[in-house]
From TrEMBL:
Catalytic activity: butanoyl-CoA + H2O = butanoate + CoA + H(+); dodecanoyl-CoA + H2O = dodecanoate + CoA + H(+); tetradecanoyl-CoA + H2O = tetradecanoate + CoA + H(+); hexadecanoyl-CoA + H2O = hexadecanoate + CoA + H(+)
Keywords for the protein's UniProt record, in alphabetical order: Cytoplasm, Fatty acid metabolism, Hydrolase, Lipid metabolism, Mitochondrion, Phosphoprotein, Repeat, Serine esterase, Transit peptide
Localization, UniProt: Cytoplasm; Mitochondrion matrix
Domain HotDog ACOT-type: 63-175, 237-350
Any single Pfam family the record assigns to this protein: 4HBT
Species annotation: Sylvietta virens (Green crombec)
Region (Disordered): 35-62, 217-236
Domain of life the protein comes from: Eukaryota
Gene that this polypeptide is encoded by: Acot11
Protein name: Acyl-coenzyme A thioesterase 11
An example Gene Ontology CC term for this record: mitochondrial matrix
Length: 615
C-alpha cells in the first residue's frame, strides 16, 4: 500500500505540480519500513489503473521462472586491478539461479552442481553486471537453470557477454526431503531448444567422471615432466594453501545452509593464492570446471579450504581446490562437500598470457593429479570447442577419440534437437500420408519428412537406429559396417552408398549414430547421425568421401500402436540439387524412400507378431 500511495503522489507531482503533504510522505516511509499499522482498505475507483500508470511500462510476457539481476560494480567488489572479483560474480550468479529455481519449485532449493564456466572478459568498477537466469527443464526432483551474464558500460552504452552457465538445483521439502517437481512447458523456440538439450547436458554430467577415467586408461603412463627439461620446475608443495572459514548467518540462506556461491567464492580465493605462489604475480581466472556439491554445510560449521597447483602448461595452470566441513573445533571427522578445478593465466601489460614455470608434482597423489590435469585440459579444449560452437562452426571431419567422444555425441544429438525445435518449417509437398517440409537458413536447406505408422514407437526406434538394416528400405544405401560400438547408445558405421547419376564412383561415409530414449513423457525417441573421422578408415580412391552435418529420426508415440516418424536432414551444398529437385516435384524419390521405410516397419512388426504367436 505504501508503494502504491507513493507512486500516486509522484504521478500527481509530475502531472499537476501538486505538493505532496508531509503526512502522506510520512505514511509512505513508515509503510516501506514495515511500521504502519493502518488496516488495508479497498481499491478506490480508477486507483489500480492510476497506480499501474505510475509504474514503468510493463515488459513483454516472459518465462515465469525468469529472474533478472543488475549490480553496479563498486570498489568493494573488485581486486587490486579494479576488476570485479570472480568470487563476487559467482555469488551473484548463484543467487540469481537459486531464486529462479525456487520460483518454479515453490520451495527452498539448494545448488547441486555448476557446469563449466568460461570467462570471456573482465569487468571494471562502474560497469553494471546484468544476470538473467531461468529454469530450462525440470526433472523428477532436480532442475537445470540457464544463466547468462553480461556487462554494461553506462558511459558508452556498450554491452558485452561475460559467460554462460548451467546450474543444477534440487528442491528440498521438510527435513531435507526431496520434492517432486512439476514439469516445465517451454513457450518460445529458444526455450524449446534449451528444454530439449537439457536432457543431453544432464547425461553428459553423469558420465563426466567416466570420461576422465577412460582417457587416463588409454593415455601414456609417462608424465609430461618426464618428456621435458624439468630442471627449473617449481615443487608443487610450495603452492599448497589451507584456509578455514566460519559459516556465519550472512553466509547462509533462509534454511541455514551455506550459499553455494559463497563456498565457490571462498574456493576461488584460495585457488588464486595457490596460483600466485607459482607465478609470483596476480593471476586471472579463465575457467572453472564443474562444481559438484556433495553435501550441505550449515551456520556454525567450519569450512577447511585446500588448494594446490596440479599442473602448469605453457600459458595456463590448473589449480585443484577442495572444501571440507566440520561442526566443532574438537571434531575429528570432516565432511568433503565440494571439489573443483580452476584454470588461471597471467597476463602481461598487453593482455597476453605469459609463459609459466613448470611444476614438479609430489610423489603419489601429486603425480596422479598431475596426469589427471593433463587429461582434463584435453577434455576441456574438446568440450569447449565441440559443445560451445554453433552448429555451422563445427567442422564435419572432427576426429573421434577418447577425450571428445562424449561431447561429439552431445553435439550430434543436440544439433538434431535444435533442428527439430525450429519454428519456420514450410509444407512443401504432401503425398498421401507422407508430408515434406523445408526450412531455409543461411547456407543450409533443411528438410523434414514425416509419416504416421501403425507400430509402437519403441519398436520403430530399434529398427531405424540399426544402420546395418537401412539398405532394406533405403535404395541409396549399399552397405553399412559397424566399425566401433562405443556404448549401448553410440555406434560408428562405415556406410557405402550407391553411385548416383552423373557421378563416377559411389560415396562412402563414416557416421556416428547416437540414439536416445525419451527422458520424460512427451519426449521423442531420437536417432542422430553426423560424420566423424577415424584414423582406421581414411578416404579411399574407390570412393568419394561424403559428409553429413546433421540428420536423423525423431519418433513420437501417438498411441500404444501408432507412432509419428519424422526424418530430418540439414543438407550440405553438394546435396542441394538432389533436395531441390524433390521439392520442386520433379522426382518422387524422397517420398518413395519414406514409403519404403513405412513398409519395412510394418513388415517387421508383422514378423515379430508371427514369431510371438509361434512361441
Amino acid at each position: 500500500r505504501a508503494t502504491l500511495l507513493l507512486s500516486r503522489c509522484l504521478l500527481k507531482m509530475v502531472k499537476g505540480n501538486i505538493i505532496v503533504p508531509e503526512d502522506i510522505l510520512s505514511f509512505c516511509c513508515n509503510g516501506l519500513q514495515g511500521s504502519s499499522t493502518s488496516p488495508p482498505r479497498a481499491w478506490e475507483p480508477g486507483e489500480r489503473e492510476e497506480a499501474a500508470g505510475a509504474m514503468a511500462s510493463p515488459s513483454p510476457a516472459r518465462n515465469p521462472t525468469e529472474v533478472q539481476m543488475s549490480q553496479l560494480v563498486l570498489p568493494c567488489h573488485t581486486n587490486h586491478r579494479g576488476e570485479l572479483s570472480t568470487g563476487q560474480l559467482l555469488k551473484w550468479i548463484d543467487t540469481a539461479a537459486c531464486l529462479s529455481a525456487e520460483r518454479h519449485a515453490g520451495c527452498p532449493c539448494v545448488t547441486a552442481s555448476m557446469d563449466d564456466i568460461y570467462f570471456e572478459h573482465t569487468i571494471s568498477v562502474g560497469h553494471v553486471v546484468n544476470i538473467k537466469a531461468k529454469v530450462n527443464r525440470a526433472f523428477n526432483s532436480s532442475m537445470e537453470v540457464g544463466i547468462q551474464v553480461s556487462y554494461e558500460d553506462l558511459c558508452s552504452g556498450k554491452h558485452c557477454s561475460i559467460c554462460k552457465a548451467y546450474a543444477t538445483f534440487v528442491a528440498q521439502g521438510p527435513l531435507g526431503s526431496k520434492v517432486r517437481l512439476k514439469p516445465l512447458t517451454p513457450q518460445t523456440e529458444e526455450e524449446k531448444i534449451e528444454h530439449s538439450i537439457a536432457a543431453e547436458r544432464r547425461r553428459m554430467r553423469l558420465v563426466h567422471k567416466d570420461t576422465l577415467k577412460d582417457l587416463l586408461t588409454h593415455s601414456p603412463q609417462e608424465t609430461e615432466l618426464e618428456t621435458r627439461d624439468g630442471s627449473g620446475a617449481v615443487p608443487a608443495g610450495r603452492t599448497r594453501v589451507e584456509s578455514v572459514e566460519l559459516v556465519l548467518p550472512p553466509h547462509a540462506n533462509h534454511q541455514g545452509n551455506t550459499f553455494g556461491g559463497q563456498i565457490m567464492a571462498w574456493m576461488e580465493n584460495v585457488a588464486t593464492i595457490a596460483a600466485s605462489r607459482l607465478c609470483h604475480a596476480h593471476p586471472t581466472l579463465r575457467a572453472i570446471e564443474m562444481f559438484h556439491f556433495r553435501g550441505p554445510s550449515q551456520v556454525g560449521d567450519r569450512l577447511v579450504l585446500k588448494a594446490i597447483v596440479n599442473n602448469a602448461f605453457k600459458n595456463s595452470m590448473e589449480v585443484g581446490v577442495s572444501a571440507e566441513a566440520y561442526g566443532q573445533e574438537m571434531s575429528v571427522s570432516r565432511r568433503h562437500i565440494n571439489s573443483a578445478f580452476m584454470t588461471f593465466v597471467v597476463l602481461d601489460r598487453e593482455g597476453q598470457p605469459r609463459t609459466l614455470p613448470m611444476v614438479a608434482p609430489e610423489p603419489g597423489d601429486g603425480e596422479r593429479r598431475y596426469r589427471e590435469a593433463s587429461a582434463r585440459k584435453k577434455i576441456r579444449l574438446d568440450r569447449k570447442y565441440v559443445v560451445s560452437c554453433k552448429q555451422t562452426e563445427v567442422p564435419l571431419s572432427v576426429p573421434w577419440d577418447q577425450s571428445n567422444k562424449v561431447y561429439l555425441s552431445y553435439n550430434n544429438v543436440s544439433a538434431l534437437k535444435m533442428l527439430v525445435a525450429k519454428a519456420n518449417w514450410v509444407l512443401a509437398r504432401e503425398k498421401e500420408k507422407v508430408r515434406m517440409y523445408t526450412l531455409e537458413e543461411d547456407k543450409f536447406l533443411s528438410f523434414r519428412i514425416e509419416i504416421s505408422v501403425c507400430i509402437p514407437a519403441g519398436r520403430a526406434f530399434s529398427l531405424l537406429s540399426n544402420l546395418r538394416r537401412r539398405h532394406e528400405w533405403d535404395s541409396h544405401y549399399l552397405s553399412a559396417e559397424l566399425v566401433q560400438k562405443v556404448d549401448d547408445d553410440d555406434m560408428i558405421y562405415h556406410v557405402v552408398s550407391r553411385k548416383l547419376r552423373h557421378e563416377n564412383k559411389p560415396q562412402d561415409f563414416v557416421i556416428l549414430a547416437s540414439r536416445r530414449k525419451p527422458c520424460s513423457k512427451g519426449d521423442p525417441y531420437v536417432v542422430a547421425f553426423r560424420s566423424v573421422t577415424l584414423p582406421t578408415h581414411p578416404a579411399r580412391a574407390e570412393f568419394a568421401r561424403g559428409e553429413t552435418l546433421c540428420s536423423g529420426f525423431c519418433i513420437w508415440p501417438e498411441s500404444e500402436e501408432m507412432s509419428k516418424v519424422a526424418y530430418y536432414n540439414q543438407a550440405m551444398p553438394g546435396y542441394l540439387n538432389y533436395v531441390t529437385t524433390n521439392v520442386a516435384g520433379l522426382s518422387s524419390d524422397i517420398c518413395s524412400t519414406f514409403e519404403a521405410c513405412e513398409k519395412f516397419l510394418l513388415k517387421n512388426k508383422e514378423d515379430l507378431i508371427s514369431r510371438l504367436q509361434d512361441f
